[in-house]
Amino acid sequence: MKVDARFWRLHSSCCRNISFATVLTMALCLAAPFADAQSTGGRIRGTVTDPSGGAVAAATVQLINEGTHATREVQSGANGEYIFLEVPVGSYEIDLTLQGFKKYVRKGIVLDLNQVLSVDIVLQLGGSTDVVEVTGAPPVVDTTSTQLGAVVNERSSTQLPLNQRDVYQLLQLQPGVQSQLGNDLFYGSDRAGVVTVNGGRGRSNNYTVNGGDGNDLFANLPAVEPSPDSVEEFRVISNAFDAEYGRNSGAVVNVVTKSGTNNLHGGFYEFFRNDHLNTHPFTFTSSPKPSFKQNQFGGTLGGPIKKTRPSFSFLTRVGELFKGLFPSRLLCPRRRKCPSKAS
Length: 343
What we know:
12% of the residues lie in helices and 36% in strands. By secondary structure, the chain is mostly beta strands. The protein folds into three domains: 41-134, Sandwich (Immunoglobulin-like); 148-257, Beta Complex (Ferric Hydroxamate Uptake Protein, Chain A, domain 1); 265-324, no CATH class. The strands form five sheets. Strands 3-2-5-6-9 form a five-stranded mixed β-sheet, with no helix packed on it. A five-stranded mixed β-sheet has the order 10-15-16-13-14. Strands 1, 4, 7 and 8 form a four-stranded mixed β-sheet that branches. A hairpin with a 2-residue loop joins β13 and β14. The radius of gyration is 29 Å and the shape is elongated. Residues 27-36 and 326-343 have low confidence and may be disordered.
């Protein structure tokens, strides 16, 4: 009887341990896809006060996306503070209507990726039918974060000249960023996205696209390279990262692609390069131009899926045709006649 009791106690203990391990494993598996997710927007915060400077509590602040007209609301706290978390990049309008005060309206608030904007609201006494629209106000400044970085917007991605249309070439325009092209140090060092930031290693950077992992796990290179026409903006954070970032000791390259709006919009393009447009290579003897033909084409289309619901889509398609040879230097030993043409 004693043996049976010990056996059943041991069996019960083992079953509990196995159940606990199973539940823990399932929880880790479910949380794994969200572990590396980074922010794809920013934050807008501020304080609501009356003309005397006193805090106004329980005031409903309304945030409106000027492109999609998506609306969010939040109430100010006891000290008058309010905050909107995970706000997508774009241009916004802030409205506030409260009994006994004039309606407050501020338009054209541009939010960049991973930015924290401070928009303080000062109400004026009057009827709710009167509107106070704030225009020409000084630019809002992020005073809540110590991280250093630069933003490359959609205009720079599409209008600056890019050889082979690799948007990561724009990383070289940021302070402290230096390209490693031409340094055959390791596999993948010829990629435009492999850069050294503030003297760090080229493989020490962390790339994210729309909050997901965009790294090549084999060599820690940028594995996802969006088309320049699909990029809304991307941010290069070079120092003093927030707690949400990690994984690598170098810089953080956070890319966010475009989304649709209430209006249907799109475009088509083709970038053409041909040997007829090139000059002759520099050689001591006359030689024909190397054969070279490159066509890069694509298109974008964005708009609402259903106007009665705040759902939008943005599609992009890219193609490339390439044919040609890259000229290389021909070395000849001394006192020997060099061939006139290289095949």
